[in-house]
Predict the structure.
Amino acid sequence: MISQNTIQQILGRLDIIDVIGGFVKLKRRGSNYLGLCPFHNEKTPSFTVSPAKELYKCFGCGRSGNAISFIMEHEKYSYVDTLKWLAARYGIEIEETFQSDEQRQTQLAADSLFIINQFARDFFVKQLFETEEGRDMGLSYFKERGFREEIINRFQLGYSPEQRDAFTKEAVAKQYSAELLVKTGLVVNRNDQLMDNYRGRVIFPVHNHSGKVVGFGARILKGNDKAPKYINTPENEIYIKSKILYGSYFARQAIDKADECLLVEGYTDVVSLHQAGIENAVASGGTSLTPDQLRLIKKYTNNLTIVYDGDTAGVKAALRGLDLALEEGLNVKLVLIPDNEDPDSYVNKVGAGKFKEFVQKSKKTSSCFSLRWL
C-alpha cells in the first residue's frame, strides 16, 4: 500500500491544469479553461476545467471529477496506479507499507522484472534499427508485412540476433540477476550455460495498462519444423497471460471513444489494424480467451466484436469466446474473415475503408451465429 505521507505529497503537488493539459489542448476562458472533451467526439469545445475548484466537467457528455478521477477515467487506471503515475510525473518517491515480508519480496521481484524487460525492449529495438543483421532480417520482415516505421516504433517492435548469447552478455554485463533473467524468459539455462531464448526472432513487446513491458512474443523467421512459430514469456510476478490483452495500452482510448472493442487473435492483426487507423483492436495473443481478459475489455466498453479467421479453427475459437463473453454480460457480435484470410492480410488486401465496411456489414448477433453453426 502507498503510505499516507506519499499520498499527501502527491495531493499537495497536484495541478489539475498541468495534469489534464497533458491530454487535452486547453485554452483559457476567463477564470476557467476550455477544450475538446477526450471522452466523446465533439467539434465544439464543451469540456471545462476550473483551477479554482480543481474540477473538470463536460457539458456535452456530462463526465466530471478531479485530477485523480480524470486519470482513472482517461487511462483506465486503478486508484493506486493513478497515484503511482502522478508520483512519477512530479518526481515523488513512493513510500509503501507492506503487511508481510513475502509481499515486500514479491514487489521487489516485480520491480526488477519491469527493469529487465525495459532494458530488453531497448536492446531489441536497437538491434532492429542499428545492426546490419537486424535491418536485413527483422526490419525487412516487418516491411514485407506492410508495417511502416511509424507503427514499428509505436509498438516498440524489435529483433533478437542469431548469436547464441548476444542479449545475455549485455544483460550480465549490466549485472542483472541470472535467476531473474531466466524468470523473464529472455534467457535459458542449458547445461549451466546461459543463452538467449529468442535467437533469430522478431520481437513483439507486451505492455500492461500503464505502458510498462510485462513480456514478449517472439516470432521465428527461418523455417524450422522443430521450433515453435512463437515463443511467449512464461508466467511470473508481472506476466499472467490470462489477464493480458495485447495492444490494450494503445487501444484503450479508441475503445472508449468508439464504445466498441474489436478482438482479434494475433500480434500482427493488432499492429496492421492500428496502422490502418482501426485503433480499437486488441488480441488475446497466444492464449485462448479468458474471463479475466473479458473483464478487462468490460472496463472500457460493454460492446465486443470478435473478428476471427473464417476457417474451422477460427470458428471454434469464436464460439468459445462467444460463450464466455455472454457469461460476462457483454454485448457480442461476430465477424469471420473470408477467403482463408486473417485481419492482418485482409486489411492490407482491401484497405482500411473497405475493411471497416466489411466488419459493419458482416456483424452477426450471438443468436444468429450460434444457430448457423449448430
Q: What stands out?
A: The chain has three domains: 4-89, 101-239, 245-372. The chain has 16 helices and 16 strands. The first helix runs from residue 4 to 13. Residues 114 and 179 are 14 Å apart (CA to CA).
